[in-house]
């Protein structure tokens, strides 16, 4: 009898090139995604050492973080330069490095351009059972397809470019089992915010999380991507969801997915990956889906969550002193007071986008709420930023862009946008933003900006009323 293994153990074991005495292992990397922010020094390092990229065919580069989300070409088709010199330099470096090292490059104004974590799955570059890395913490997203995917630093980017391997220590495994089904108006984003609220931002430290249970079987691949994306916000090294028929159907026919006989062989292998019955996890947490409400953040850490029907917590309500102190600082930064009803909090900015929530289903969910409605007068800035050019085209084919613009939103070009203040899309100091992104850190959306994380439907509801709102109320009004 063979030993029962978890999905994580199966992928790990299949990629060990060399097991070292000190417990670390040299791991083969199947896929490497590259963006403009964390790659320039890595390519410089290769140049200085006179090295080539070991497997350019397993590497895919795309710019996303620094690009403005306003049009990138003028009426005559000429590229519009980026005003910020550092951003312009990083983009230029990637534009030069990709062809110089023979790497496939999706350019800033190409139809397929988008956020690196949106285009990986979309192109079929991300596959079950593979090891996938990127110089970016939200690489965890790709685990939704059953890939062991994690973020790496720039020196590791250089190492992978040069050798297609990484020296790693094995992580512990953690099971997050969700029982039951999510209620109406409760989305995968609410679920992951709730999970992080339960386990905390250190809950997954040192672990690879596998999300298990009926909720995930029922969940679309796009929903799974939202959940796995935020594994890093729970402190985990990576997130995983076992590949199933939905995964195969999602990947079939995608440009970089295997074809013909290779496809059949791949599916046969992918079917062997799910965690075996009896396999042991180092840690296990069970969550009841019926406990999950539409959820928002009140503070400056993704674990600072509360149902939208709830109140801003009192710092004294936390047992540990450091958490009490953090809560006081958060409330001060956020301009909130203990006991305030969350659905009384007014927002002036709405951001629908980021690698967490910018796929077609996210845009459909937001558009459903906005259809026939207008944003509140008090909402000054509302933008929708599709995760990729293909998502944008699909949304336009469905007429979603018209719904967004009719309700007072701006319809933008794909990129990271207001998820982080690295490009012109920023929330003004002291103002609030209902945001579908993944981090509510101090200054994340611009200096002094106050972020409330939530789902796309909830961000749309906030746009309509001008304050944090339980989307279920608007759904009820819809009949
Ligand atoms: C800029 C990049 C390195 C960073 C990350 O690693 O996550 C960014 O994507 C983020 O979300 O903060
Ligand atoms: S959308 Fe946000 S979280 Fe995702 S890669 Fe870009 S900056 Fe990072």
Automatic annotation (TrEMBL):
Catalysed transformations (reactions): (2R,3S)-3-isopropylmalate = (2S)-2-isopropylmalate
Keyword line: 4Fe-4S, Amino-acid biosynthesis, Branched-chain amino acid biosynthesis, Iron, Iron-sulfur, Leucine biosynthesis, Lyase, Metal-binding
Annotated residues for binding of [4Fe-4S] cluster: 355, 416, 419
Pathway: Amino-acid biosynthesis; L-leucine biosynthesis; L-leucine from 3-methyl-2-oxobutanoate: step 2/4
Gene3D superfamilies xrefs: Aconitase, domain 3 (3.30.499.10)
EC number(s) per entry: 4.2.1.33
Root EC class: lyase
Pfam families linked to this entry: Aconitase
Residue ranges occupied by any Aconitase/3-isopropylmalate dehydratase large subunit alpha/beta/alpha domain in the UniProt entry: 9-466
Textual note on the cofactor: Binds 1 [4Fe-4S] cluster per subunit.
Matching CDD domains: IPMI (cd01583)
Cofactor(s) this protein requires: [4Fe-4S] cluster
InterPro entries reported in the protein's UniProt record: 3-IsopropMal_deHydase_lsu, Acnase/IPM_dHydase_lsu_aba_1/3, Acoase/IPM_deHydtase_lsu_aba, Aconitase_4Fe-4S_BS, Aconitase_4Fe-4S_dom, IPM_dehydratase_rel_enz, IPMI_cat
Function of the protein: Catalyzes the isomerization between 2-isopropylmalate and 3-isopropylmalate, via the formation of 2-isopropylmaleate.
Family named by the database record: Belongs to the aconitase/IPM isomerase family. LeuC type 1 subfamily.
UniProt cross-references to NCBIfam families, sorted A to Z: leuC (TIGR00170), PRK05478.1 (NF004016), PRK12466.1 (NF009116)
HAMAP family, sorted: LeuC_type1
PANTHER family: 3-ISOPROPYLMALATE DEHYDRATASE (PTHR43822:SF9), HOMOACONITASE, MITOCHONDRIAL-RELATED (PTHR43822)
Subunit structure: Heterodimer of LeuC and LeuD.
Protein name (Swiss-Prot/TrEMBL): 3-isopropylmalate dehydratase large subunit
């Amino acid at each position: 009898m063979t030993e029962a293994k978890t999905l994580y153990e199966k992928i790990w074991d299949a990629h060990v090139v060399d097991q070292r005495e000190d417990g670390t292992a040299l791991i083969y990397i199947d896929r490497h995604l590259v963006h403009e922010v964390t790659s320039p020094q890595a390519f410089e390092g290769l140049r200085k050492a006179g090295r080539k990229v070991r497997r350019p065919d397993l590497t895919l580069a795309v710019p996303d973080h620094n690009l403005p989300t306003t049009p990138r070409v003028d009426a005559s088709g000429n590229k519009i330069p980026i005003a910020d010199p550092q951003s312009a330099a990083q983009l230029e470096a990637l534009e030069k490095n990709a062809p110089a090292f023979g790497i496939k490059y999706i350019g800033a104004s190409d139809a397929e351009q988008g956020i690196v974590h949106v285009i990986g799955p979309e192109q079929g570059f991300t596959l079950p059972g593979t090891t996938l890395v990127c110089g970016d913490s939200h690489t965890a997203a790709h685990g939704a397809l059953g890939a062991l995917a994690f973020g790496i630093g720039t020196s590791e980017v250089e190492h992978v470019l040069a050798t297609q391997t990484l020296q790693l220590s094995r992580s512990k495994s953690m099971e997050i089992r969700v029982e039951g089904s999510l209620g109406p108006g409760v989305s995968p984003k609410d679920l992951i915010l709730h999970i992080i609220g339960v386990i905390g931002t250190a809950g997954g430290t040192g672990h690879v999380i596998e999300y298990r249970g009926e909720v995930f079987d029922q969940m679309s691949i796009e929903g799974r991507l939202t959940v796995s994306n935020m594994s890093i916000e729970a402190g985990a090294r990576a997130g995983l969801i076992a590949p199933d028929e939905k995964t195969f159907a999602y990947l079939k026919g995608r440009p970089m997915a295997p074809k013909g006989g290779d496809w059949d062989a791949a599916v046969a292998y992918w079917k062997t990956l799910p965690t075996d019955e009896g396999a042991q996890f180092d840690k296990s947490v069970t969550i009841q889906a019926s406990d999950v409400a539409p959820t928002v953040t009140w503070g400056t850490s993704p674990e600072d969550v509360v149902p939208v029907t709830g109140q801003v917590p009192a710092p004294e309500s936390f047992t540990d002193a450091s958490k009490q102190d953090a809560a006081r600082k958060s409330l001060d930064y956020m301009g909130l007071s203990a006991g305030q009803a969350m659905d009384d909090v007014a927002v002036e900015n709405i951001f629908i986008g980021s690698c967490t929530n910018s796929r077609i289903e996210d845009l459909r969910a937001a558009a459903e709420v906005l259809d026939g409605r207008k944003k509140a007068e008090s909402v000054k800035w509302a933008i929708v930023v599709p995760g990729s050019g293909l998502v944008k085209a699909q949304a336009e084919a469905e007429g979603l862009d018209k719904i967004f613009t009719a309700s007072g939103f701006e319809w933008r070009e794909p990129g990271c946008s207001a998820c982080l203040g690295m490009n012109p899309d920023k929330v003004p100091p002291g103002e609030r933003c209902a945001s579908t992104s993944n981090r509510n850190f101090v200054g994340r959306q611009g200096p002094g900006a106050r972020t409330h994380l939530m789902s796309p439907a909830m961000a749309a509801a906030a746009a309509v009323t001008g304050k944090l709102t339980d989307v279920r109320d608007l759904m009820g009004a819809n009949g």
